[in-house]
Specification:
By secondary structure, this protein is α/β, with parallel strands linked by helices. Helix content is about 40%, strand content about 10%. It has 19 helices and 8 strands. The protein has helices at about 5-10, 20-25, 115-120, 120-130, 150-155, 160, 165-185, 200-210, 235-245, 250-265, 270-280, 290-305, 310-320, 330-340, 355-365, 390-400, 410-415, 420-425, 475-509; strands spanning about 60-70, 80-90, 105, 135, 190-195, 215-220, 430-435, 455-460. Strand 5 (about 190-195), helix 8 and strand 6 form a beta-alpha-beta unit. Helix 7 (about 165-185) packs across helix 8 and helix 9 (about 235-245) packs across helix 12.
Length: about 500
């Protein structure tokens, strides 16, 4: 496979690999890969997805299971099948049932819940101010919330995996939140839902579909416009390119020229052996695409999670730019690897090709309804041109699952090319937050749509940075972004209390 071909099937971290086909289909196929939308970057991709964090083991966090309905939208006998859905409660700061204190609900996305509880600090950081009850709900088919208990079994079962979609997930959240309200005698407690990335999309959609349950939503880094060609295919790569060019023109040019250099060296006798030695790969390269995919993954993730205080793009470019004078292009690229990944005895270029249960689940979601037409454009991005090909994508997904993806369903169900108008006409109380250095911000809502549909963004921000735990080292622009979001939420809740008081007064007379 040449380099352009390899980039067409670009492996980004936490996506599916070749051997995934052994559990789904006998055919080995690389359909178009849609980057995972996780709010956080896992530094060690071999770590289990559901590793318990310190916070998730804290006495303040109590774990529960809700007996969830498999199919909310059908009344055939099989639809009544139940499975255990995991959710976590933190009542440390709660004002109590009689206070009508709010509920802050984190909507889990394409990952086990455990890994998010510590890192998503927006809820506990602001719970004392609002005396809020905190609820974290795991997305169906991830972590501990997989029907039949095993992702492998669930994904092999054609009937079961059909219930693995966003509409069912939103209905799950609705049921759990109503259950929590009953459990804590919090009938009149306003609910604010919070989500990041795919979870941010879910939060905004939940407010649209269940406005009687959620008073408002914080949709952090939610690329709700990356469907059905609303956003240009290369929107993601265009911002990756911009990030590197703004950091260093020399770094950008070096990366851009490196792809042809890799192909040129690989074409020589013993070329793969030469590349293996130059990049200290842990195992000999079997194709130039293995190296290209590893590097492309590193460059894109550095841009997506380009957060303070380390700023990965700056780290990477520093290694490239500060290599000794006379160092060739590939030597500079390797210096960037060392700067970013630190000096290791060897570099495992196949680390991104080891599937977790999360990767398997996200592959299904992108091969069914979450079809985001992302491709490498030809107008000067940091990567060679390799456009998204819908017929090939459909062919690959059908080969793996026996069904075709539905590329127009998301826009049909939640709003299409006029989605901003849909939000404006039918939505309210949603914060769309973005950091403009995040490649996914290319498909985010970046303008106010009404007085209560608000875009809050920072020029230097990265993916989901605003909902991560606050740090003393946070720059002033990040502190200001979070402060504004909290003030907006405060306004929603105060208006809710005022409306509630008027309602009770009218019904007494």
């Amino acid at each position: 496979m040449d380099l352009l071909g390899s980039l067409l099937s670009l492996w980004l971290p936490l996506l599916l690999l070749l051997c995934f086909s052994t559990s789904i289909s006998s055919a080995v196929y690389h359909p178009h890969k849609i980057p995972r939308l996780s709010p956080i970057r896992r530094t060690n991709l071999r770590d289990p997805d559901d590793t318990l964090t310190k916070a998730s083991r804290s006495e303040d966090f109590k774990s529960y299971f809700y007996e969830q309905t498999l199919d909310h939208f059908n009344y055939n006998p099989k639809s009544y099948t139940k499975f255990n859905q995991s959710y976590v409660i933190n009542s440390k700061f709660w004002g109590g049932a009689k206070s009508n204190s709010p509920i802050f609900a984190y909507l889990g996305a394409e990952a086990p819940l455990a890994g998010d509880i510590e890192t998503i600090g927006f809820l506990p950081d602001n719970a004392p101010r609002f005396k809020a009850l905190l609820v974290y709900i795991e997305h169906r088919f991830y972590g501990k919330s997989v029907p039949h208990g095993s992702m492998e079994k669930a994904m092999k079962n054609k009937a079961i995996r059909g219930y693995f979609n966003s509409a069912q997930a939103l209905a799950d959240y609705a049921e759990v939140l109503m259950h929590v309200k009953h459990k804590f005698s919090a009938k009149n407690a306003p609910i604010i839902v919070v989500g990041g990335s795919y979870g941010g999309m879910l939060a905004s959609w939940f407010r649209l579909k269940y406005p009687h349950i959620a008073l408002g939503a914080v949709a952090s880094s939610a690329p709700v416009l990356y469907f059905d060609d609303i956003t240009p295919q290369n929107g993601y790569d265009s911002i990756v390119t911009k990030d590197y060019k703004e950091e260093s023109e020399h770094c950008y040019q070096t990366i851009r020229k490196s792809w042809s250099e890799i192909d040129e060296v690989a074409s020589k006798p013993n070329g793969l052996s030469i590349l293996s030695k130059r990049f200290k790969t842990c195992a000999p390269l079997s194709s130039p695409s293995e190296l290209a995919d590893y590097l492309a993954s590193m460059f894109t993730m550095a841009a997506q999670y380009n957060a303070p205080p380390m700023y990965p793009v700056a780290e990477l470019c520093s290694g490239i730019d500060k290599a000794p004078e006379g160092t060739d292009i590939l030597g500079r690229i390797f210096a960037g690897v060392v700067s970013f990944r630190k000096d290791e005895s060897c570099y495992d270029v196949l680390e991104n090709t080891i599937p977790s249960e999360t990767d398997i689940g996200w592959q299904w979601q992108t091969c069914s309804e979450m079809v985001m037409p992302m491709g490498h454009g030809s107008n000067g991005t940091i990567f060679p041109s390799s456009p998204f090909n819908l017929p090939d994508f459909i062919k690959g997904c059908k080969s793996s699952y026996g069904v075709s993806p539905r590329p127009h369903w998301i826009t049909t169900y939640y709003g299409g090319h006029d989605i901003k108008l849909i939000f404006q006409r039918f939505g309210s109380n949603i914060i769309f937050s973005n950091g403009l250095k995040d490649p996914y911000s290319s498909a985010g809502v970046r303008e106010n749509l009404s007085d209560s549909l608000l875009a809050v963004y920072t020029a230097k921000g990265s993916h989901c940075l605003d909902i991560l735990a606050a740090q003393k080292s946070d720059p002033s622009w990040l502190v200001a972004q979070r402060k504004l979001e909290v003030e907006i939420i405060d306004g929603w809740i105060k208006q809710y209390y005022a409306d509630l008081e008027i309602f009770f007064f009218k019904n007494k007379n």
